[in-house]
Structure formats: structure tokens, C-alpha cells
Write a structure and sequence with these properties.
By secondary structure, this protein is an all-alpha fold. About 80% of the residues lie in helices and about 0% in strands. It has one domain (about 5-430). Helix 5 (about 80-90) crosses helix 11 and helix 10 (about 170-200) packs across helix 20 (about 420-430). The termini are far apart.
Length: about 425
């Protein structure tokens, strides 16, 4: 075994050991990098330099701004308006409340980008309502949790900004556009399954579609949704950088929440900023420590070792892509999503590129995989949030989630093997 190979095994071995015994991921990454630096004789100052370099990036400022904008919009009264809009659009479909839940998560993704936030905001409203209407509570919770993965695909998504930082030289605008169709594909697959279950279990259907009601709900929701249009159109059109667009989104969200919807009082701002700051601190610590780890991953040529390992199993492109998906789902089950984006992108993206997969498509595959990990035991954060909101034990939710996992895997395979789903809009709108 070469010196680089043994150092790579040390880096990964120390990291996974620390994660297994319960050390926080950011510290596991940093400690593994430090131990490896000592082992290969690299000055410890290199670790510190890469940590600082990892967060001293202008485009990284977009992440805290998007997090803050999402927090403001969540507190600003947009959630209930989105649910009413969803009801007006799909309330006539069989299993109407399940369909409303799915569509509401699509809209909510445009203002949050977080699976946990989507489950908390939509679930706290929809799960009790669905239970009262006669839906099985474990089914209602499963719909909410699986639909929350849509939140991470619909732009603007701070997870895609993190991917752009980890991948390097990838257009954030193309990533934003690339997530739209996969998000709708996931929603359509989940909606089809909910329609089947609703027919089988005779779940109720809502009122008939009324254009006037839909237009009124759209009018009420438009000020909130306009924040998304400002960001996406601004970035795609070259009016703003992603960072500038995120800052504009914060300012606009404050205006909507305080002066238009009037749901936010000035005394509420401290709590909003404090919650956003906690999330920002976690992301920035992870980003800095992951930058050290990524530097060692590249220095030790880990992607080449992983590529050789996968190619040693099979030369088939299909088999290798399936193995990558299995690996990502497994990692998503035991680790934080932001850390995995920053750690796994430098390792797996070069392999995906060799297989002919563009970065924009790989980003969507990565996010769906890791999103599934958030609703899968043993560490799935969204799974435990759903359990807390609904009062259903995690063990029961896992059984209820089984068919939803199948539906999400179907959507994942479609996005993995049909590049047009991810690349069609970016190629059409950004020549």
C-alpha cells in the first residue's frame, strides 16, 4: 500500500470512527484532517489556512442571507397562504389534503430550502387537519416528510450554493434552474401514489376547482412568492450575483412580513435573527472544517482510489451510478446533509464527470439522495421532527414510509438516468 493510500485510509477511518462514537461532524472532520496532517508531515498551519480559506469566500455569504430570508418568510405569514393556494389548485383531486400537502411543500421550498423547516411548517398545519378529515395519521406524516425533500430542490436552495462552492466553477443559476423539473417529478410521483391510496382507502375529496378562488389565493400569496422570482430571475438574468440576490431577498422579505402581511412585529426580529444565526453558525463551521477535509481528499488523491474501487466492481455505467446512489443514501442516513455535500462532492463528482454526468445533474442526484437520508433512520432529523409533530412512534412511521421510499427511489432513478430532467431548463434558458 502506498503512503498516500494509507494516509487516505487514516483520514477516512478517523473521521468515521469519531462520527460513530457521537462526536459532532464538524469536529470529526477537523480532527481527522489534523491527525492526517501530522501523519504525512504537513505543518498544522496548513489545516488552519485551509479552514480560513474555506469560509473566506464572497459567494459563501449567499448561504447566511438565504437562511435568514427563509426564516423571515416562515414567520411572516406566508405558510398558511401557500396552503390556501395549494388547496385552491389541487383541492379537487382525490385525496385532496395529501395533494395539497405535496404542492404546499413545492411552494414552501421556494422560500425555505430546508426539509426540516418544510416538515415543521407544513406538517404542524396539515397533519392535524388531515387526521381530523379521516386520514391515517402515519400516512399524513409520511406524505409530509417525503414531500419535504422537494423543498431542497426548488430554488433558491442554499444547499445548491454549498454544492457550487464544493464543486468549483459551477453556475449557481444553472443549479437553481436544474432543480425545478426534478422537484416537480418528485411531487408528481408522490402525488400519483397518494391518489392510488386515497382511492383504495376512500379518503375524502375537497371542493371543485374554482378559478376565482384560485386567483384570489394567488393574489394573497404573490407578495411572498415574488421574493423567489426576484432571486431566480435576478441571478439567471445576470442582474445580481447569488450573494446580492440573497441580500435583496432578506430586505424584501422584511418589507413583506412587516408592512404587507403585517405578521412580523419589530419585537419579533430578535428571535428571527437569533434562530437564523444558530443555523448560520453550524453551516459556517461545517464549511470551514470541510474545506480542510476536502483539501486532504484532493491532496491524497482519494477520488482516484474511490473510482478504481467502483470500476473494480463493474465497468458498467449503470451499475456504478447505482452504487453511487446506494453510497449516498447510506451516508445520508448517518450524517448531516451540509457536511456531506461539502465532503462527498470532491470525491464523487470527478467519477460522475468520467461517466458523462454534468455537475448540474449530479447536484440534483446528490440532493435527492441526501434528502432521503434525512427521513431514514438511524439519524434522520426530519423523521424525528415528523414523529414529534404527529405523536406517532418512529418505528411505526418507518413502516408507513416504506412505499414512499419506493416512490422516491423511482424519482431518483429518473433523475439519475434521464439527464434532460436536470439539464433541459438550464440549456433552454442559459445558452
Amino acid at each position: 500500500m502506498t503512503a498516500n493510500a494509507s494516509a487516505a485510509l487514516l483520514l477516512l477511518g478517523v473521521f468515521f470512527f469519531l462520527v460513530a462514537i457521537g462526536v459532532q461532524i464538524a469536529y470529526s472532520v477537523l480532527f481527522a484532517s489534523t491527525v492526517t496532517a501530522i501523519y504525512v508531515g504537513i505543518p498544522a498551519a496548513t489545516v488552519v489556512q485551509n479552514l480560513v480559506k474555506g469560509i473566506n469566500i464572497y459567494s459563501l455569504m449567499a448561504v447566511p442571507f438565504f437562511i435568514l430570508a427563509g426564516e423571515i418568510m416562515m414567520q411572516g405569514g406566508i405558510t398558511d397562504r401557500l396552503i390556501r393556494l395549494s388547496q385552491a389548485l389541487v383541492g379537487w383531486v382525490c385525496g385532496s389534503l395529501a395533494q395539497i400537502n405535496i404542492v404546499a411543500c413545492l411552494f414552501f421550498g421556494a422560500i425555505s430550502g430546508s426539509s426540516a423547516a418544510g416538515t415543521s411548517a407544513i406538517g404542524s398545519m396539515m397533519i392535524p387537519h388531515m387526521k381530523k378529515a379521516g386520514y391515517d395519521v402515519d400516512f399524513a406524516t409520511s406524505v409530509t416528510m417525503s414531500s419535504s425533500v422537494e423543498c431542497m430542490l426548488i430554488p433558491p436552495s442554499h444547499n445548491m450554493v454549498l454544492f457550487a462552492l464544493a464543486a468549483g466553477n459551477v453556475s449557481i443559476a444553472r443549479l437553481f434552474l436544474g432543480g425545478i423539473v426534478p422537484g416537480f417529478v418528485l411531487a408528481a410521483v408522490l402525488g400519483a401514489y397518494c391518489y392510488y391510496v386515497a382511492k383504495k382507502r376512500n379518503y375524502p375529496t375537497g371542493e371543485k376547482f374554482r378559478l376565482q378562488s384560485a386567483l384570489q389565493c394567488l393574489k394573497e400569496s404573490l407578495p411572498g412568492l415574488a421574493a423567489v422570482l426576484i432571486v431566480v430571475v435576478g441571478v439567471i438574468g445576470g442582474i445580481f450575483t447569488a450573494t446580492e440576490a440573497a441580500a435583496v431577498a432578506v430586505l424584501y422579505s422584511l418589507i413583506v412580513g412587516i408592512f404587507i402581511y403585517k405578521e412580523i412585529k419589530f419585537r419579533d426580529l430578535f428571535g428571527i435573527f437569533a434562530r437564523a444565526l444558530r443555523t448560520m453558525s453550524i453551516v459556517l463551521i461545517l464549511t470551514g472544517s470541510s474545506a480542510c477535509f476536502s483539501w486532504f481528499v484532493a491532496y491524497l488523491n482519494v477520488p482516484a482510489y474511490v473510482s478504481d474501487f467502483l470500476l473494480g466492481i463493474s465497468r458498467s455505467r449503470i451499475v456504478i451510478l447505482l452504487l453511487m446512489n446506494v453510497l449516498l443514501i447510506f451516508c445520508g442516513m448517518i450524517m448531516d446533509m451540509a457536511a456531506l455535500i461539502l465532503i462527498m462532492t470532491p470525491i464523487l463528482l470527478p467519477i460522475a464527470l468520467k461517466l458523462g454526468m454534468e455537475p448540474v445533474q449530479f447536484c440534483q442526484v446528490l440532493i435527492i439522495n441526501l434528502g432521503m437520508g434525512l427521513i431514514t433512520p438511524p439519524v434522520g432529523g426530519t423523521l424525528f421532527i415528523g414523529s414529534a409533530i404527529s405523536g406517532v412512534r418512529v418505528e411505526k412511521l418507518i413502516r408507513a414510509m416504506a412505499p414512499f421510499y419506493v416512490m422516491m427511489i423511482i424519482a431518483l432513478l429518473l433523475v439519475t438516468f434521464i439527464p434532460t430532467l436536470s439539464l433541459g431548463l438550464p440549456n433552454l434558458l442559459m445558452k
